[in-house]
Amino acid sequence: MKNIAVIGTGYVGLVTGVALSEIGHSVICVDIDEQKVASMREGISPIYEPGLSELMKKNYEAGRLSFTTSHEMAFAGADAIYIAVGTPQKEDGTADLRFIESVARNIAEYLADYAVVVTKSTVPVGTNDYIKQYIEKHTDVPFDVVSNPEFLREGSAVHDTFNGDRIVIGSSTGLAASILKEINKPFGIPIFKTDIRSSEMIKYASNAFLATKISFVNEIAALCEKLGANVDDVAQGMGQDKRIGEKFLNAGIGYGGSCFPKDTSALVQIAGNVEHEFTLLKAVIEVNYKQQRLLIDKAREHFDSLRGKTIAMLGTAFKPNTDDMREAASTILARELVLAGANVVAYDPVAMEPARKLFPEAVDFVDSVESALDGADAAFLVTEWDEFKELTPAQYVSFLKEPVLFDGRNCYDLEKMKAAGIEYYSVGRPVVKVEKELV
Ligand SMILES: NC(=O)c1ccc[n+]([C@@H]2O[C@H](COP(=O)([O-])OP(=O)(O)OC[C@H]3O[C@@H](n4cnc5c(N)ncnc54)[C@H](O)[C@@H]3O)[C@@H](O)[C@H]2O)c1
Ligand SMILES: O=c1ccn([C@@H]2O[C@H](COP(=O)(O)OP(=O)(O)O[C@H]3O[C@H](CO)[C@@H](O)[C@H](O)[C@H]3O)[C@@H](O)[C@H]2O)c(=O)[nH]1
């Protein structure tokens, strides 16, 4: 079993640290955020991720997992140092590497003995070479750098870490690769070994490909709406071809989150740096831009004007089972609705606090789905939480002023909505209209 330091305790760092301790390693997580460290020491996870708190507490109490704000303490005796700090998007679309740069400084300063530096953060091709050169320049202590990109999804991060399809290890030395293989062996997940630059590219290419699948199916959805087809059936029929695969073909209001938007944009820039215009990926991003605003377009068509209308927003998180609001479509929708003069009443089972900080002040937050729907002119279903999927048509009918629903996640059966008399707009499926009797 190895001694491992993990730098950064966000979604990736904390889940990685907890998982590595669960398979028996001795793990110390370091973060510059004192509040986070204090809360983890009290057994409270700073992020909402199903199953994480329990596993964190278990390994903390077993003495295999600890937390600190001191890099020096974390690196002492470490066989491997995992980098899991953020690489957010800069205004020009490129990846902001300032946290990576500061970590390289931390390592150069406090590295005491040979260790493998393992980059989990998503970094542009060539960044690991930069990290290596920087540390080499500032210390004589030997080390190796390995690229080990992360593929977990938020909302199922713990499950994904123990059940990944592959672990990618990009290394230029046999020793470092074998240490990484040994560390990861207890996971029992196939390991794919390659060189460092290919490993860095695998991460961007994977995210860009998944984003492409989503924008592709959303374009098909737009055509389905115009041609009278149903995108859910189309996606299912396509997905049964194993070469296409059924996953990531859910039409909706586009992709959000902390990864796809920033990584697609960074890859366009990475391509640009070597004078390659990534036309396909640019179109993927453009489609997503339109898609995130789709419910507003549909509502405008229905109501003509949104001024004075009350809209119940069901869900604010970018996907279910997370409190992450980064690049959530809800933020765009809330802003545009308020700009159009609508009143917005929002509810999310876990992401309300972070949403409050990002939404316009005019948005009202309520503590139940019923309060959100009560007396509203229409509902926007933005995040497909189970709690919303379980709502019955009768509940919409009884709470809304007029039963009008704009569903950005295709949660309900068209026939059931029709039978209940709900005007139901979803994505890439026929609109359910209610026949109004002429007086
Ligand atoms: N969130 C995901 O689902 C996901 C999945 C795969 C890959 N990634 C990639 O993993 C990386 C981390 O993402 P995240 O969402 O976990 O980030 P995050 O922003 O949630 O967490 C980063 C943490 O690093 C800490 N930090 C910054 N500088 C530090 C330093 N010098 N020393 C110690 N701690 C420091 C911050 O305080 C913060 O707690 C990114 O590159 C991201 O693209 C994220
Ligand atoms: O068929 C689909 C699948 C997803 N989405 C949307 O796409 C976004 C991203 O979803 P998902 O991939 O499930 O969540 P993330 O946590 O962002 O995970 C992605 O980004 C991570 C960070 O790089 C990677 O590690 C994961 O492999 C990759 O799936 C969300 O807004 C979803 O609503 C769709 O619209 N349709």
UniProtKB/TrEMBL annotation:
It catalyses: UDP-alpha-D-glucose + 2 NAD(+) + H2O = UDP-alpha-D-glucuronate + 2 NADH + 3 H(+). It comes from the Bacteria. Its EC number is 1.1.1.22. It comes from Alkalicoccobacillus murimartini. Keywords: NAD, Oxidoreductase. It is an enzyme of class 1 (oxidoreductase). NCBIfam families: NDP-sugDHase (TIGR03026). PANTHER family: UDP-GLUCOSE 6-DEHYDROGENASE TUAD, UDP-GLUCOSE 6-DEHYDROGENASE YWQF. One of its GO terms (molecular function) is UDP-glucose 6-dehydrogenase activity. Pathway: Nucleotide-sugar biosynthesis; UDP-alpha-D-glucuronate biosynthesis; UDP-alpha-D-glucuronate from UDP-alpha-D-glucose: step 1/1. Belongs to the UDP-glucose/GDP-mannose dehydrogenase family. The lineage of its organism: Bacteria, Bacillati, Bacillota, Bacilli, Bacillales. This is UDP-glucose 6-dehydrogenase. The keyword Secreted does not apply. Residues 312-414 form the UDP-glucose/GDP-mannose dehydrogenase C-terminal domain. Gene3D superfamilies: Cytochrome c1, transmembrane anchor, C-terminal (1.20.5.100), NAD(P)-binding Rossmann-like Domain (3.40.50.720).
